[in-house]
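Researcher: Here's the sequence for the chain we discussed earlier.
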Amino acid sequence: MKKLINLGFKIEVIGDKIKMDKVINYGFISHKKVLKLLKKTKYSIVSTENVFSLFTIDCINNQVKLLIHDKNYALLNYYKKYFIKYNANSSLKKLINN
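Model: Thanks. This is the structure I predict for it:
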């Protein structure tokens, strides 16, 4: 996440709070508020535990591009156009700009 902040991206977190400078934490909010935030969101990060969580599905429904680790990208059969695969060595700025 520090890489994204250093690249000038605004980081907003819902759910568990993250203690980092320049990160906006919303905590646990209603589904209605999540959907409102997603309407303004361009990118999100997919959880490694569950590629198709309800949050991921909400992101897809709101045209949000999802950053996904390349190991999990192999699990996808559908909706690949919404996912951007990355690994630890990826240049996030280059991936997002493409």
